[in-house]
């Protein structure tokens, strides 16, 4: 029997530069694919509830200025309502805080004295603005989500007789929706 050599010769590989580059590139692509991150997805709901709402913003004071006996005095002021889109609403004005006032005939006071005046919905001052009672009307609209302005027209009649003084009243605007 023949003796086997103690070691075997090493095989030699010969690769051209192009073949070696291709081999390295394929190895890197294989590694990149195995290292790619895995993903998982899910969903969630988004909800909201919008309730009907309105807010009323009063304007600057309705100022009649200096009232002279026998001379009618007119004035006006803007009020605004902001109501959610599509919300129907009604604006009412109360009688004010003057002694003996009604929604049809309001009264400013100065101490114990009063000065009559009226509030209207229109510039011609024919439609009394109140709470819907005593011959008065309310204003109705539908919310747009933006401020809607309304003019309140006031008048101190020429027949108003009052003592010297500074007169004032406070009107409450109510939005019903």
Secondary-structure element series: HEEEEEEEE
Gyration radius (Cα, Å) is 43 Å
What fraction, in percent, of the residue positions are helical?
Answer: 10-25%
Give a short account of the largest sheet: 5 strands, antiparallel
| Helix/strand/pairing category | mainly beta
Low-confidence stretches: none
**End-to-end Cα distance:** 114 Å
The order of strands across the largest sheet is 1-2-7-5-4
**How confident is the prediction overall: mean pLDDT?**
89
Number of DSSP-assigned strands: 8
Number of helices: 1
What percent of residues are in strands? 25-35%
Shape: rod-shaped
What does this structure look like?
The model has no long low-confidence stretch (mean pLDDT 89). With 177 residues, the protein is mostly beta strands. It has a domain at 54-60 and 71-159. Strand 4 and strand 5 (113-120) form a beta hairpin. Helices cover 11% and strands 29% of the residues.
Report a brief summary of the structure.
This protein is mostly beta strands. It has one helix at 17-35; strands spanning 54-57, 73-83, 88-93, 106-110, 113-120, 139-142, 147-156, 173-176.
Short descriptors:
1 helix, 3-stranded antiparallel beta sheet, single chain, rod-shaped, 5-stranded antiparallel beta sheet, 177 residues, 8 strands, mainly beta
What layout of secondary structure does this protein have?
Blueprint: H1 17-35, E1 54-57, E2 73-83, E3 88-93, E4 106-110, E5 113-120, E6 139-142, E7 147-156, E8 173-176
Antiparallel strand pairs: 1-2, 2-7, 3-6, 3-8, 4-5, 5-7
């Amino acid at each position: 029997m023949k003796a086997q050599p103690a070691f075997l010769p090493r095989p030699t590989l010969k690769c051209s530069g192009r073949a070696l580059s291709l081999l390295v590139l394929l190895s890197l692509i294989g590694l990149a694919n195995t290292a790619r991150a895995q993903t998982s997805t899910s969903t969630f709901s988004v909800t909201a509830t919008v309730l009907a709402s309105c807010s009323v913003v009063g304007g600057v004071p309705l100022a009649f200025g200096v009232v002279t006996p026998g001379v009618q005095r007119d004035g006006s002021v803007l009020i605004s309502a902001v109501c959610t889109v599509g919300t129907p609403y009604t604006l009412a004005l109360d009688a004010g805080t003057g002694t003996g006032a009604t929604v049809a005939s309001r009264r400013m006071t100065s101490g114990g004295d009063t000065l009559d005046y009226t509030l209207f919905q229109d510039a011609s001052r024919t439609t009394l603005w109140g709470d819907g009672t005593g011959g008065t009307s309310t204003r109705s609209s539908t919310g747009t989500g933006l401020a809607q302005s309304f003019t309140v027209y006031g008048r101190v009649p020429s027949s108003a007789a009052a003592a010297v003084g500074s007169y004032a009243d406070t009107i409450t605007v109510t939005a019903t929706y």
